[in-house]
Automatic annotation (TrEMBL):
Every DUF202 domain range: 26-93
Taxonomic path: Bacteria, Bacillati, Actinomycetota, Actinomycetes, Micromonosporales
Membrane topology: Multi-pass membrane protein
Protein name: Putative membrane protein
Organism: Micromonospora halophytica
Origin: domain of life: Bacteria
Length: 131
């Protein structure tokens, strides 16, 4: 499916409602709650990026603070966009009675956050050991 069609679904509720049948509202509300949870995650990552840019002291590696901030900001934006796309695909699947779409994104996000935490631990240890 072309990207523009996917994006159109995000902004055109009538297109989404034109497929399948109206589901039990509880499923749609659960899908919306999941979307909002992902959106909060994206906002938290963005807030973390802004906090890193403003409040982290200079780190042992040149521009590490800025790299951390930019990485968190980009990851937060990606999570927000991914959230709306997943919401639209899931709502469509619910309306059509299809299997819900699967995604590797939660696993990728968890790995990236874990890797980022390990890198921060290394930076803190290097700084703490006088590096």
């Amino acid at each position: 499916m072309p990207v523009w069609q996917a994006i159109r679904r995000w902004f055109d509720p009538s297109e989404l409602r034109s497929v399948g049948t109206t589901p039990d509202y509880r499923f749609s509300l659960a899908n919306e709650r999941t979307f909002l949870a992902w959106l909060r995650t994206g906002l938290a990552l963005i807030a973390g990026g802004l906090a890193a840019a403003q409040f982290l002291p200079p780190l042992p590696l040149r521009h590490l603070r800025e790299a951390i901030a930019v990485a968190l900001l980009l990851l937060g934006g990606t999570v927000a966009v991914r959230a709306v796309d997943h919401w639209a695909r899931t709502e469509r699947a619910i309306r059509l009675g299809e299997e819900l779409p699967v995604s590797r994104f939660p696993a990728v996000l968890a790995l990236l956050v874990g890797l980022g935490a390990l890198l921060l631990v290394a930076a803190v240890l290097v700084k703490g050991l006088g590096g």
